[in-house]
Amino acid sequence: MVINLYQLMNKKYYFNFNFLVINMHELSYATSIVNAILDYINKMENGNKIKKVSKINLEIGELTFINFEQLKFAFEVASEGTLCKGAELYAEFLKPQILCNNCGYKGDLKANDEFDVKCPKCDNIHIKVSGGKEFNIKNAVLESDDEIK
Fold first, then answer.
1. Scanning 50, 54, 84, 89, which has the fewest C-beta atoms within 10 Å of its C-beta?
2. CATH 3.30.2320.50 residue ranges in the chain?
3. How far is CA 110 from the centre of its chain?
4. For residue 62, what is the DSSP state?
5. Category of 83 on φ-ψ map: left (φ > 0), alpha (ψ -120 to 50) or beta
């Protein structure tokens, strides 16, 4: 079973938790993943037959600056006690594209952080950026004991 794309957006915060620093940026995304999938299952006609979510495929724009290892850890915390517990997360990272207004370069943006955004060919900052901030649930594998139509 495949879940349609679901776009999510959040902001960056930091929070100390039992001497571990959990990046609230990743935790808010992880919580949103769990909530989106559980909402979808609850709205399904036969959602009560779902026993487990085993795999979740994500599309993540590189300009979200999400640390995937932190996202997986935050997902473990957020999914505890839900059908999503134990689901494997996979991600395809999407590169932002740029058009340089100075030299005309078109192609992938190589950004070290959200403040270092410039043309890789001429180092000019007058560029147009498209994409790179996506965060989509591409699909998920839902398991049940019975066949669902």
1. 54
2. 1-94+136-149
3. 19
4. G
5. alpha
Chain CA centroid to CA 148, Å: 27
| Tokens read off for 87 | 């689901």
| CATH code of the region 1-94+136-149 | 3.30.2320.50
- Is the pTM higher than 0.85? The answer reads no
Which residue's entry shows tokens 């009560």? 48
pLDDT digits (tens, 9 = 90+) for 124-145: 889 998 888 899 999 999 998 7
Distance CA 5, CA 121 (A): 34
Which residue do the tokens 């932002």 mark? 96
Closest C-alpha to 10, from 47, 46, 61: 61
Share of the chain above pLDDT 70, in %: 79
Write out pLDDT tens, residues 101-115. 999 999 988 766 666
- Least confident range of 81-85, 89-93, 143-147: 143-147
CB 56 within 8 Å of CB 144: no
pLDDT at residue number 47: 73
Distance in angstroms (rounded) separating the CA atoms of residues 85 and 70:
16
For residues 127 and 118, the answer to whether their CB atoms sit within 8 Å is yes
